[in-house]
Amino acid sequence: MKNLNRRDFLKLSTNSLLALAGILGVGGLLRYLSYQFDSPPRNEFDIGPQTDYPLYSQTVLPHIPAIIVHDDDGLRVMSLTCTHLGCMVEPRNFGFECPCHGSRYSVDGKVFKGPAASNLPRLRVEKSEDGNIHVFRT
Amino acid sequence: MNDTSQQTPNPGNKRSFTRPLLAVVLIVLILAAGTLNSPRVKASPQMQGTATPQLLPTPTFDLSRLDKPVVTGDNSDQLKKGSIIYWGVCLTCHGDRGQGMTTEWRDAYGDDKNCWQSGCHGSDHPTPGFEIPKDLVIPPVAGPGKLARFKNAQELHDFILASMPWWNPGDLTDEEAWQVSAYILRLHKVMPTEFELKDTNASAITTLYAVPQPGNDRPPVLILMSVLGLAAIGLLIQDLRKSKPGAAERPNFFHHLHPPTIPALQARLRYTLGAGGLAVFLCLILLVTGILEMFYYIPVPTHAAISVETITSLVPFGALTRNLHYWSAQALMIVVTVHLLRVVLTGAYARHRRLNYLIGLGMLVLVLLLDFTGYVLRWDEGIRWALIVGTNLLKAIPWIGNNLYQLAIGGAEPGLSAIERFYTWHIFVLTGGMIVLGSWHIFRVRRDGGVAVPPPSQRTDHTRISRYDLLRREVAFIAVAGMILLAISYAFPAPIARPITEATVDIESARAPWFFLWVQQLLKIGQPFLWGVAVPVLLLLVLALIPFFLPQADEQEYGRWFPKGNRIAQILLLALVLIVILLTILATIPTAQL
Q: Which one, of B314, B310, B312, B309, lies nearest residue B322 by Cα?
C-alpha cells in the first residue's frame, strides 16, 4: 500500500466502483426475477361428499395427490407426494413405491426403503358446512 | 301396437360387432322395441297418415339411408371401425348424420317417433331397457357450430370414453372411443382424412373448424436426402483429386473464415474426429429449426403441448423440423462429449489452451441445460416428473435453495411462470450464452494456433492445405452429416406424450431424459443435495482442474492419440466417463417389484 501512487489509486477506485455497480446490478436483477407472477398454489381441495368414499374404500386423488382411506377409524387422507424429490408414489401390494428413485413406503406411509428420509405425511381433513370433505395440503 | 314381427331393419344386427357386449345390449333393445311397436318398414307415408293421425304430417324418411354407415371419404381402419360402432350404437339417438334427435330423425322410427312415450323409453320401459328423461337433450354431434363444448378431439374422446353410451357409460374401450371420436369428427367435417387420431395429436384437432389436410412430407424429404448425397459425392470426388483453385479464384466470405493455409496435420479426421466442426454444424441446425419451431410454439401451460402436437402432426414439414431439432440436440450431447474425450485423450488442452478448455466445459454445461429446458418445453406427460425432480433438486441446496427454486420457476410450483422462464432461458439466455462462448471458443482455437499439432521444427509432415480445400472438405462433411441427420429424422420421430392435465397423472414415464439418467441413478442412493447437486458439481470441478493440477502432454506429443505426458488425466477422464455410462445403464434396468 506504501507504493500506491495517485494513478494506481485512481485505477483501484474506478475498478472498485465498477465492481460495486455490477454487484448492485446483480442484486437488482435477482430482486426483479423474484417476483411471483403465478397465483399461489391451491392448498385446499374440495373432494365432494363423504358418501363418495364408503367404508373400507381407498381412493387415489391424483390432483392433490393423495389417497383417501375410509376404515373403522374413520376417514384419513395421506399425501402421495414422495418426500424425496416430489414424484407421485404408486400403490403396490406392500404399500407405495416412488417411480422416480425407488423409495418404498408401507401401507400407512412409513418409509422402509430409501432414498426418501421421511414418511408420507397425513393431510388434514375437514367437513365443510355443505357436507363436503375438504383436504388441506400444507 | 303389439305386432311382434321382426322386420325392423335396424342396421345394428346386420353385422358382427367388435364387442359382443354392445351387440347383446343392442339386440335386446331391438327385441324390446319390436315386442311393443310396429316395425319401421311399415312407416310409409300412407300408413303414417292413417295409423297416427294425431301427429303432424312429416316429410318422408328415406330408410335406405340406414343401410350402411354414412361414407366419409376415408379408408383408415380407425374410421371404419368407428363408423360401425356409431352406426350400431350412437346412431339410434344421435342420428345417422350426427344431426341429433331431430324431428326429421325421429321420423325414421315411424309410429315410434315419440321415444319418451310409455313402453319405449318411458318410465314403464321393458326390463332390459332404460328410461330417457323427457327433458334430456340429445345433442347433434356434427354440423356447423356443433360440438362446441369440446375444445378439441382429446376432450371429445375423454367425454365419450367416460360418459357414452348414455345408458351404459364407460362401456367403450379407449381404442373404441378414439374410433368413434374419429368418425364423429369426420361427420363434423373438421378432421383431415387418413389421420389416425391418438392422444398425442388429438389436442391439435379443434372441433370449431376444418383442420387443413396435412400433406405427405415423406417424398420431398427423400428427394432432399438424395440431392444432399449427390452433392457430398461430388465434393468428395473433387477432394480426392486435390484440385488446385484457379488463379482467378478469389476467397469468398467463408474462405476468409479460415487461414489461407493450414498444416495437413490439423485436418486429419482420425485425429480430430471432426467433432468440433460437427458440433458447430449441429448448433446451426438447432438454431434454424429452433427458430422455425418458435413460429408455432406457444409457451403457456394450456397450449404448449397442443402447439407441439400441431407442429408434429399438422404443420407441413413440422414433424421433420421437430425431429431435426430433437435429433440434433441428442447428437450434440454425444458429439461434445466425444470432443471433450478427444481433447483430453490427445492432451490438446495443455498450457495456453487451458482457457479454451474451460470455455468448452462451460459450453458442455450450457448444452446440458439447453437439452433439459428444451425437453421440459414439451410440457406433456413425458416430462412431468423430470421437471418436478429437476426443480426440487434446487430446493435441496442449503441456504439458497428456496431462492434458486423461486428464480428458476418463478412461483411456488411449476406453472405459467415456470414455462415462461424455461422458454426465456432456452431461447434467449442459454442460446445467447452458446453463441458468445462458441464464438470465443472458435476464436481461441485460431488464436492458440489452430488444432494442436507439434511445433513446425518437430513435424514429420510439412504439407499444408489451402482454405479452398479445407472449405470443400467441410462442406462435404456437412453434406454427409446432414444426410445422416435427415435419415434419422425421417425414420425416428421425436418423443411426444399427451398434454399435462390436472385430472390425469401418467406415472409410466418417471424416467429422466437420457443425459440425466446417471443423476437419477445417483439420486436413488439418498440425500438429494449430496447426490443430485454436490456430486455432479464435483465431477465438473474435477474436469475443470485437469489442466491445472495434472501432468500435461509435451508440445511434440501434440497431434497424437494417448500421449505419454498426460496419462493420468486420460485414465481419470475415461474412468469418469465409464462411471457415468455404467450409472446410465443401471438407471435403465427396471427395479424388481415385490
A: B312
Given a contact cutoff of 8 angstroms between Cβ atoms, the answer to whether B186 and B98 are in contact is: no
Our CA angle for A122, A125, A128, nearest 5°, is 170
The winner for highest mean pLDDT among B32-36, B336-340, B548-552 is B336-340
CB atoms within 10 A of CB B528: 25
State the pLDDT confidence band at B594, using cuts at 50, 70 and 90: very low
Q: Show the 3-state SS of B440-473.
A: HHHHHHHHCCCCCCCCHHHCCCCCEEEHHHHHHH
pLDDT of residue B309: 92
Q: Percentage of chain B with pLDDT > 70? A: 84
Nearest beta carbon to residue A38 from set B415, B505, B593: B415
Q: Are the Cβ atoms of B528 and A84 closer than 8 angstroms?
A: yes
Residues in chain B: 594
- Cβ–Cβ of A84/B523 closer than 8 Å? yes
Q: State the alpha helices, DSSP H only, in B188-260.
A: 218-241, 253-256
Q: How many CB atoms lie within 10 A of CB B23?
A: 17
Strand B464-466 and strand A66-71: the pairing is unpaired
Give yes or no for a contact between B56 and B25, defined as CB atoms under 8 angstroms apart.
no
Distance of alpha carbon B334 from alpha carbon B328, whole angstroms: 10
Which residue blocks in chain A are alpha helix, DSSP H? 6-33
**Chain B residues whose C-beta sits inside 8 Å of any chain A C-beta:** 385, 388-389, 392-393, 396, 403, 406-407, 410-413, 415-417, 420, 502-505, 507, 510, 520, 523-528, 531-532, 591, 593-594
* Three-state DSSP class for residue B414: coil
| Residue A32: closest C-alpha in chain B | B407
Alpha carbons B10 and B27: distance in angstroms, whole number = 10
Assess contact for B311 and B321: CB atoms under 8 A.
Answer: yes
Among A34, A62, A99, the residue with its CB nearest the CB of B406 is A34
- The verdict on a CB contact (< 8 Å) between A88 and B411 is no
Q: Which residues of chain A neighbour B300 with C-beta distances below 8 Å?
A: none
Write the ipTM: 0.85
Quote the pTM value. 0.83
